[in-house]
Amino acid sequence: MILNVDGESNSIPPNHLAEILTGQGKSWALALLAGYFSLNGYQVTVACYSDYLSQRDEKDFRKNLDAFQFENKVEYKTFEAMCTDLSSLKNKVDKQSDQSILLVDEVDIFVSEYFESNVLKSHIEKMIRTAIRIREDMTKENLLKDRYQIFDEYIRLKKADGKYDKNWLVEYETSFYYLKLIYEKENSFDNAKSYRHNFGYLYISYGLISYSEIPNSFIGIFGVSGTLRDLSNGEQSLLEYYNIKRKSYYPSFFGHSKLKFDTSKDFHIKESKTDWFYGIVTSAKKQIAE
After folding, report:
1. What angle do CA 237, 221, 54 make, to 5 degrees?
2. pLDDT tens digits for range 66-116
3. Which of 43, 107, 145, 234 is surrounded by the most beta carbons within 10 Å?
4. Which residues of 36-52 are buried (b: 16+ CB within 10 A; e: fewer)?
5. Is there a contact between 47 and 275 (Cβ–Cβ < 8 Å)?
6. What residues form DSSP beta bridges with 102?
7. CA pair distance 135, 83, nearest whole angstrom
8. Burial of 24 (0-12, 13-18, 19+ CB in 10 A)
9. Are strands 154-158 and 148-151 parallel, antiparallel or unpaired?
10. CATH number of the domain at 16-117+210-249, out of 3.40.50.1110, 3.50.50.60, 3.90.1750.20, 3.40.50.300?
């Protein structure tokens, strides 16, 4: 039903989402869809918010479907990894999108606030400002002198408890202050040790990619969720933005839920925690007896 294949057309089926309850086959549905599109010549990306879940599902996919030999056309990735890949593709994106299918695990996460646009940071300006501030500080107030010290070839930051720790980094400040201390001591940079703890990481923004733009790089979008019915109006409108208009709701393996809740009869306020616990036990016994 997700594919909506009628045998009369070779085109990609319309974008489609399906509600499959938790523990009832979402991963397998995505694996079979990935196999189908792969066998039809498409590059398939199965996207998930969790790196752990993504690796787990990929392992199961390889184990059970390796015989079909389409593993080179099926990739399991997190949304973050997809952004990183897109930033390096440059002019290849348009060409790739003509043959790419996106399969989304947990659509509710896909359309949630997780998808927020990154902000392009003026990193060069920030680096220059930090370098100037450190130079001025060391020639004037020297306020940072007590904050940083070099012990055993590592620069260490003074924490709130007064102890110095090499594992604490403050972006560009740590890097530039280390170089300044080395130059003061050696009058050169020849003996500067390029340990990770001394330089940390220089945060350089090399592009701007919004998570919400990921789907626009694919020709077809399919996905599963255990809570498709519970999407808000705003989340539903986002699906329409991606031209996802078809939805299927699959029943539970275990039949219909027997939960019955009446807001007027089944809502109770107890005077104490003891009464509250007693009420829970009494209600549970009553339901079991029925």
Report:
1. 110
2. 777 765 688 999 887 887 777 666 545 455 556 899 999 988 887 776 554
3. 107
4. bbbeeebbbbbbbbeee
5. no
6. 45, 221
7. 37
8. middle
9. antiparallel
10. 3.40.50.300
CA-to-CA separations, 35 to 25, 107, 184, 217, 248, in angstroms, rounded: 15, 20, 62, 20, 20
Structure tokens, 134: 């450190």
Alpha-carbon distance of 103 to 93, in angstroms, equals: 17
Quick one: CA torsion of 61, 67, 71, 73, rounded to 10 degrees? -120
| Residue in this structure with the two tokens 């694996």, named with its chain if needed | 31
Taking the C-alpha atoms of residue 111 and residue 103, their distance in angstroms, rounded to an integer, is 14
| Residue pair 159/185 in contact by the 8 Å Cβ criterion | no
Residue 214 and residue 119: Cα distance in Å, rounded?
A: 16
C-alpha span between 204 and 122 (Å, rounded): 9
Do residues 181 and 214 touch, judged by C-beta distance below 8 A? Answer: no
pTM of the model: 0.59
* Cα dist from 160 to 97, 145, 164, whole Å: 51, 15, 9
Which residue ranges does the chain devote to CATH 3.40.50.300?
A: 16-117+210-249
SS3 223: strand
Task: Express each pLDDT in 25-59 by its tens digit.
Answer: 899 999 989 988 888 889 999 998 888 889 999 88
- Our measurement of the distance from residue 248's CA atom to the centroid of its chain's CA atoms, rounded to an integer in Å, reads 25
Look up residue 126 and give its two tokens.
């920030």
> 104: which strand partners?
47, 223
Calpha distance 113→102 (Å, rounded)? 19
Which tokens sit at 133?
Answer: 């501030």
